[in-house]
Fold each of these.
Amino acid sequence: MDTSGDLDKTTGWRGSRELWLAAARQAFLDGGLDAVKIQPLAAKLDLSRTSFYWFFKDRTALLDALLAEWEAQNTGAFIAACDAYAASIAEGILNLIVVFQDETVFDPRLDFAVRGWAHQSDAVMARVEAADATRLDAIRGLFQRFGYAPTDADVRARTVYLTQIGYISMQVREDLATRIARVPGYVQIFCGECATAPELARFYARMGVST
């Protein structure tokens, strides 16, 4: 039996760290933590196991990289939105709502999957709790930037954030038109002010929708 092909596949390497990480992320989203295993990923990518070990020490290192990517993308999106220019608190809330709506900026499936993983790992739970604290701090800071008292800013930040996490945890399915129609109401409830017509127009343009 000729095993030279298998040997070449096992001992050769090619690909990239990004390729392995993207495959791990997709496997995680599709099949959960147990789906993130080296050999199945190698088979799917048609790469050798040696390729994997060129970029990652072991499966634990891959999983840690997956968590780091989640933190950078999803938590980073909140920080960037809260730091973005806004002429009013209403516009600041609209910046945050873009994060909630645009899955290229914030990946709700990844957030949901990581939260599920946290129930299996104290270490991951600690990172989720730290991420939640960081996101809440950013939203509180947004409100305080526009003059809200610390207690008010805290309650409003929790209202904004926990509403969104509730959407993710309940895996709410709404069509885009329905969500967009609710945006002016959400803004008023979250901050106590109405978004102006120009602010809403800029939001709709960012979302690529017409009204």
Amino acid sequence: MKRFRRPRLLIWQWLLLAPFAIAAFAVLQVLILRVVPPFTSAFMIASDAPEIRYDWVPWQRIAPVAGLAMVAAEDQKFPEHWGFDFEAIDKALDHNKRSRRMRGASTISQQTAKNLFLWSGRSYVRKGLEVGYTLLIETFWPKRRVLEMYLNIAQFGPGVYGVEAAAQIYFHKPAARLSRSEAALLAAVLPNPVRLRVDRPSAYVLGRANQIEDQMQALGSDYLADLH
């Protein structure tokens, strides 16, 4: 019996250490990506598009209206929260109890964590990892880095990732020169960038883009001026 004790002990040691090793790896990923642009993302790797268009650009080379449009469309409390909008979560849970059409409440921080590190779909495991990565991002990255990352890895069309690639493909200009209406149109397709098209916008997309422009106007052009 004694000869079986050591292998069993090693197995238990590995099982006990595994969560700490996984957590340390996740922290290392987040710390590196605080300063290093990612060369890809989990969503890009999982994409079945025949070609991936992705061009990283720093914050200084993205028009301020682009960040404002994404915040207006997706997460208006972004400068204030610590990764989670609990009021929006409560409203989504209440809505989902009464309706077959599910409503999400993911913040920009959560979407960044999911798009960068995880996979699409619904499961408790993925959601738990999303929460963990969101907390790490909010802990180790400044808000500006979170939004910079989101702007660069968000999907805006089949195989099109980031505002630079989207601006070049759809408007034939760099992201630094996006207009308010163009930024709003990009933000309008974020709920489903495969079905909703920037190049062939439906009435729904155009209407949503107009609503986003109104929200941008309400927030004010300097809403993200103090983001750091």
Amino acid sequence: MTQSERRARKVSRRWPLISGLVAVLLVIAGGALVAARTSNLIDDEWMEEILEHRNPIWDVPSLVMNFLGGGLFAAIIVPVGTIVALCLVRRFWGALYYGVAAGVSVALVQLLKEIFGRARPLDMLVTSDYGSFPSGHVANAATMAVSLGFIFARTWVWFAGAVYTVLMLLSRTYLGAHWLSDTVGGLLLGAAVAVIVWAPLAAKLQQEAAGRRHR
């Protein structure tokens, strides 16, 4: 590889890092904004629509998403299971990448919840911990979706991840566990963390994927 090619590759990886950091800063700015205001027109109108259209038929799938994205299942079983599965298919760099991204995402979510201390909606159908902004469920989903998309680089993986993340976003607002802006913040934060952690590991992940294709 020539020096110009190395320089071009470094530049191409710098932009994802910069864009990810910008997204995190936007989340922080958005969190400060919504925490400082007693009401938000978009959040209020979205929640009014949710309350008007609640139906028992949507309760079960929303509660399933609540289980999949929270508690011990999401905090331990999903990340550990994913890491073990990646190791079994000899995606060791992928396992490291996903583990770091998932851990950083959870840590940032909890930190921002403590900093902003935003109150959750009153009409919740589930019990939740302290702090509404950002949504941990959505951040976890976005981190997983983007991480696995980078690891496997398959269109169907990206599509499945996007669908899962959107369903998680909708379920959190349907259950009244989060305001709409909380879920958007979680989406941006989770995706940004996955991109930021990916940037320095991109070469190793690409080499690992290329090695598997040539076996």
Amino acid sequence: MSLVELSGLVAALCWTITSLMAPKLIIDFGIFRFNTLRIVMSSIVLLLIAMVTQTFDASLWAHKGQLIISGLIGIFIGDTLLFSSVHRLGPRRAGVLFATNAPMSIIIAWFIFDESLSYIELFACALVTSGAMIAILYGKRKNLVENSKATPLEETRGNLWVGVAIALSAALCQVFGAILSKPALLAGADPMAASAIRCTAAALALLIAYNLYFHKQNKTALFSWKAISFTSYLGAFATGFIGMVIGMSILVWGIGNGDIGIVTTLSATVPVLILPILWITTGQRPAIGAWIGASLVVVGAALIVLY
């Protein structure tokens, strides 16, 4: 396996780590405040990298409008919804549902670009959808001990199907964000600089939304900034750096330098990577339904991108 192909697996590992770190940090910061902090930190790092490497060029600015909209849809809305689903469903089920962005891409291309679906693609879409449903309905162990440290990562907060709808919406936003950023990358824009534009647009939108609405509505229900430990701030920075700066950038680099089918297939292994890590960190073996569902999602995603 070459370094280019390995980039997809590295990206999947990055997103798996951030998904497992997020539940505790969301409790400390709150969903919206946590996402605002991590995206602002990530945008600063990406801007510094782009300025030091001098990768802001004409091909980038020619597509700045599309990249800004891409950041607003894919990161501002998409990431906020994703971490809301992680909080509601836990990282395993949220990860499985988010992997449905693969069949969503096929369906959207069918409607927008009039691309026909092959029988293999239809079968793959069915595999991903059925895998997600199996993981949701049969993926939790019945004998999960209430006081177990696995409970916060597996419990459902609020209505199950509300969490499912939020996770699917996050996947849909990610698809539209990717579609809007594609022309700039095809024109030769640097992936890190394009990520910096997208992330900065999302960061500004998150800051405006937080100060105008969210802070006033939730200031009595959340810990004050001073009450949150320095460790939690480091954790928020780590999730942004690992997930956005490293994970997102290395995936774009891999797609630009290698076989898109192989790289994307490896990046879709998040639902499977999360299972052994959950087993190790919590001491609770995932149920057989979780393994079956995650495997179907990965097989379906592989069929979509390879055929």
